[in-house]
Amino acid sequence: MTTYCSENYKFSYLDSPEFLIASLHILGCLSIPVHMFGAYCILFITPKTMESVKIAMLNYHFLTFLTDLMFSVLATPYFLAPSFIASAVGIFEKLGVDPILQMCSMVIFHEILFFSIVQILENRYMVICDVHWIWKKVRVPWLIWSYATIPFFSLPIYLAAPENPLLSKSEALEVFISVIIDNLLIFSDIFVTMFRIVIKVKIVLRK
Q1: What is the spatial distance between Cα 100 and Cα 172, in angstroms, rounded to a whole number?
Q2: What single-letter DSSP state applies at residue 78?
Q3: Entry pTM
Q4: Where are the transmembrane segments (predicted)?
Q5: In this predicted model, which residue has the larger pLDDT, 141 or 165?
Q6: Residues 3-30: tens digit of each pLDDT
Q7: DSSP run (H or E) holding 87
Q8: Which of 55, 57, 58, 181 has its CA 20 to 30 A from that of 84?
Q9: What residue spans of the chain are helical by DSSP H?
Q10: Is 194 exposed, middle or buried (0-12, 13-18, 19+ CB in 10 A)?
């Protein structure tokens, strides 16, 4: 196995997965009361001038807490730099959860977290700007649709994961490409439908 350290380098406890597990678990446990205090501030100390954004802020705060918990306690990915390799060493691994499922869960949590930021910006847009009545009608279905479809973007990765962990790279690539092709029509229909809706909304807004 190729090593990127010098021959005289002595590996210590700081280089081990055990140190990563212990440090992240401690930080994760310490962050729980901090997140709880943040939720308390959002719920009970938010000024009345920001009442309209309270739910969006609480949603973002809650998703931040879940993402933090996923990385520090539940999944705890251990990266092997400079190679793009990671191994889950958290509680889920102890419970025997599928590593591919853990990876997809981390991706989904990040995607939902990023979209919650978009929700906050959309909320500010609704409050500050004089939006068209059509957007007021479609914004809630749009938010629900967006949150509901986020998990499906990681579905091809989960389906393309080989059942045999010793599968060669070429065979794994063939499986991944075949799954992508099989699901391409489904995702293309979704994007085409969303694009048509956006075009129709723009046409109506210009009138």
Answers
A1: 14
A2: E
A3: 0.71
A4: 20-46, 58-80, 100-121, 142-161, 173-199
A5: 141
A6: 556 677 777 888 788 888 889 889 988 9
A7: strand 85-88
A8: 181
A9: 17-40, 54-69, 91-94, 99-128, 133-149, 155-160, 169-206
A10: middle
